[in-house]
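Hello forum,

I keep getting stuck at the same step: I have a sequence, I want structure tokens, and every attempt I make locally crashes halfway through. Rather than fight my setup again tonight, could one of you with a working pipeline run this one for me? It's a single chain of 503 residues.
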Amino acid sequence: MQATGVLSCPTGELSRADKCCQESRDTRVGFSAVAAPAAENCPHKKPNRQPGTQPADLDARSRMLLEKPIVPMIMRLAIPNATVMAVYVLIGLLEVYFVSRLGLDALAGVAPVFPLVSLVASIAQGAIGGGIVTTVARALGTGRISDASEYAWYAVALSIPLGLATTAAMVVLGPSLYGYMGISGNALAIAVSYSSTIFAGATLIWMFNFLMAVVRGTGNLRVPVIVVCGGALILVPLSPALIFGAFGYPGLGPSGGAVAMLVYYAVGTLAYAAYLWGRFGVLKPSFHVPKLSLGPTLAILRIGGMSAVVSASTNLTLAIVTVYVGMSGIEALAGYAAGSRLEFLLVPLCYGIGGPVGIVISANLGAGQIERAIKAAWVGVLMAFTLAELVGLAVAAFPQQWIGIFSQDPLVLQVGAEYLHRVGPFFGFFGLGYVLYCAGQATRRMAASVLAALLRAAIAVLGGYVVVRLEADVTWNFVAVALGMVAFGLFALPPLIRRSGYE
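Reply #2:
Ran it on my machine without issues. Output:
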């Protein structure tokens, strides 16, 4: 099976589908090691199939991606996807809220852990998971349902080693890392306890998001809504019960929230597995583990690896700024933590739009419908910029309403409000850059998005360093964050203007 065979089929006497089938057979008999590098050998603009014609065995959702009007279709897909992403983040915000009721030490203790948990989730969901989504969508765009079905097993196979590696890394590096981030005393003890608990189940985080990516790659965004929202109904009462105690049982403190999150991921993983292997959708994965080859794995990881730089930059930038802000005291740190939670909200909101855009682009590039793919990219860019900018302007105008949810401490309120005043008006550029990143996953052209993400992080790091050296007010760090957002959006735009990867 060849993950990106649709891109590497040479034109000739055989049909596109026949050559892809031949390439799939070649992969199984020994050429899988070179399958991924071959992915770029055939331009999208040279398919044998005429644009606008699709294989007869396409399912209804694939036909929707290839034939329905673009604007209403993206809106139709974006609404459930944004719902999933918004609920996903609201779950995290509720976790912060519940923990904050335990006091300032508890809030400051979990503050450095949340960016790292979000980092793992964003890489699993949007980076490597994005590679799974776009690859499944491409396979279905050419009618290769059996090939697409096997990606359910690749999702499982990839999640186990990645989860174990995450657990090991955080057990070894976590305590010293939180110390370097300015956490000490009781807050440090809370951070280590919470981190040890949540990352012990890192495999569940990876598998949950990978299996969701397989489902999303089919264009079915309703099942994730059911799973995520259904899990939230369990988590909302479970989390405070485990944190504060219930029915005569003592609470576990902040670590109780981590246990509740792991229960959520475990139940969701079982739900996705039941859907896929129960064969309730277009995919029909086998009940026994198939012979997995290296080519599709490398194809996913190649996309995911570059995407991870983009995903990691958001969380790492927040973590770096956390270090700088933490030098001004625990109240300033708590204020920044409350304000920056909105950046975590921006990621799933923008991915709510960008994810479907990537699916539509992938399916149409696989079908040779280049102009339709480009139009989908521009529609997604405009939608994400508008949505993110509206959110940013709203919180910049009324910052106290947001920060006050987490704390009423005057200094916390002041620092959080200063962050939203300076950064909120530039949220639109984050939305712009994020959808361009999703489009880059679909076109296999990630260089511009990676450069933009690294530039954003560099501006935040250097800007924070200058603030520290000049002993300037802590809020000047937020100016660097805002400038970084602008760079993230603008520097990722040229490939779409040049149609790079589409032709």
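The chain has 21 helices and two strands. If your local run keeps crashing, start a new thread with the error log.
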